[in-house]
Write a structure and sequence with these properties.
Blueprint (H helix, E strand, L loop, with lengths): L17 E4 L5 H12 L3 E6 L3 H13 L3 E6 L5 H15 L4 E6 L15 H21 L3 E10 L12 H21 L5 E7 L8 H4 L2 H10 L8 H12 L10 E4 L6
The structure holds NADP nicotinamide-adenine-dinucleotide phosphate.
Length: about 260
């Protein structure tokens, strides 16, 4: 029975925990890594090409009194993804992984028929095969009350022109979230996904990089501003932390009320 009488520490709710955040060198993953570190976790900052940015984040976390280290892998590649699993296990040593955030992803938008099928294969590799492979490879290393998070997207449930291939990868993530929650629940592991709307990152430049794009996005949303990476990091902090212990198998919409 959880101890409801003693409120969890508000200052360092993740003290003593270890987290892996994929795609933490930029955008949403970077904000999530920063938030988990601020909450006291030791964070493995995964990157692929943006090594300098990852190293800068590690330095920033350490300067703020936290603890982090960088770990590299190209998640489009099966062997590289396997190496990431091995590297993480080696870094963990005798510790367990308390928080796994499968966040790295790519976007590729085109109407049907306009691109060859290799675009879909890349999307499936990075957005679906890799999070499945990472989670599967680390399942024995997860703590018995671990939190597994995925970054999904509202495109899985709402139509956006040209986004069919990307959307199906996020639909797969939502399905994986429910299945893993059911499969890992006996170990006390909570599995949830966050579904952002448009968030101000490099990925979103194509649709919110102009005033017109921004206006279109705001018009779709109940809340009339552009979503920021910290809007998602706060939800991740909640899902990784002690207050979400009774939440599992859910896809949490964090879109400022897009397309309500
Ligand atoms: N921004 C949005 O509007 C939005 C909305 C809904 C959902 N999302 C989802 O949120 C997640 C993060 O997106 P973001 O907007 O933060 O994107 P971003 O700014 O483009 O950052 C993408 C991150 O993923 C990593 N990554 C990309 N390809 C990779 C590969 N082949 N191997 C390993 N890592 C790779 C990048 O690493 P390097 O830079 O080191 O290569 C980077 O850290 C994605 O899953 C995305 O689908 C974003």
């Amino acid at each position: 029975m959880p101890d409801f009488a003693t409120p969890p520490s508000r200052t360092n709710p993740l003290a003593g925990k270890t987290a892996l955040v994929t795609g933490a060198s930029r955008g949403i993953g970077r904000a999530i890594a920063r938030r988990l570190a601020a909450d006291g976790a030791h964070v493995l900052v995964h990157y692929n090409q943006s090594s300098r940015s990852a190293e800068e984040l590690v330095a920033e976390i350490e300067q703020a009194g936290g603890s982090a280290e960088a770990v590299a892998a190209n998640l489009e590649d099966v062997e590289s993804t396997d190496r990431l699993v091995g590297d993480v296990k080696q870094k963990l040593g005798n510790r367990k992984l308390d928080i796994l955030v499968n966040n790295a992803g790519i976007l590729d938008q085109a109407p049907l028929g306009e691109k060859d099928i290799s675009g879909l294969e890349r999307l499936l590799a990075v957005n679906v095969r890799a999070p499945y492979q990472v989670t599967s490879g680390l399942v024995d290393a997860l703590a018995d009350d671990a939190r597994v998070l995925f970054t999904s997207s509202i495109v899985a449930r709402n139509f956006f022109p040209g986004a069919a291939a990307y959307a199906l990868t996020k639909g797969a993530v939502d399905t994986l979230t429910r299945y893993l929650a059911a499969e890992l629940g006996e170990r006390g592991i909570r599995v949830n996904a966050i579904a952002p709307g448009a968030i101000d990152t490099d990925m979103a430049v194509g649709f919110i990089g102009t005033d017109e794009g921004k206006a279109q996005v705001k018009q779709m949303q109940a809340l009339k501003r552009i979503g920021q990476t910290d809007d998602i990091a706060r939800v991740a902090g909640f899902l990784a932390g002690p207050d979400s212990g009774w939440v599992t198998g859910q896809v949490i919409d964090a879109s400022g009320g897009s397309k309500l």
